Amino acid sequence: MRFLVFAALVLALTGFAQDAAAQRSLSTGGQMEIQSPKKPHSYARVNFSDGTSGERFSLKAGDCVKNNNDCRDDRERVEFFDKRQSIRPGDEHWYAWSFYLPPEAFPRLSGAGPAYTFGQVHQRGSSGPEILFQLFSGGFFVNLSNPYRLDDDPMNPIGPYRQVRIARQSDLTNRWTRITLQARWSRNEDGFINVWMNGRPVWSYTGATTNADDPLYFKYGLYRSFVSRCGGPCPDATVFYRNVRQGRTQAEVQ
Questions:
Q1: Contact 82, 217 (CB under 8 A)
Q2: How many CB atoms are closer than 10 A to CB 236?
Q3: Residue 7: half-sphere exposure toward Cβ, Cα within 13 Å
């Protein structure tokens, strides 16, 4: 029965497509590595009936990754990361990805529950993520971490330096959402960030964007943090992605 639901979802996605051409997944180029509990439901490549292809990420209660302390740190995930970690402070970089929340397979969030992350840029070492795109019950937010303080305690994180709501959950459900991110990663005031959603500018920032000199790397998939806030087993959750790209110029991610 579960398979039939997912099959129907893959077919249904066609009607909400915004990206016209099939595109090779960023994860198939050899530069990405997956963090996953590696269960049968965790991850799959999928083909949509309009000829495009994509990826399915799914979480069930207890899907923490044991070799990176997720189980200890109240996290669950199935998420790709760029293992090259070749972006350096001072670099300008572009990222773009499309994701889809199926109404039949992603929970309607309410109350003080966990956060769901659909894309982040992380920094090697102990400084944590620099920017996260997170869904809470209150909406979908861009969260910029504090560029002046190290945030090395995942159980007691420093609050965001900037937090901007760019959508409601209902704006993301049953439709494709395209995020484009331009950033110059810098410890100085010459840093900047620009964010577009579905081609519309939604946030800009100028100033320091990172708090360390370590390399940075992009991550995408399905990441659930503070799962204990569910008050019991968290519900099943699924998200679809396609046209995930990164590069040095805007043209490389269009």
A1: yes
A2: 15
A3: 4
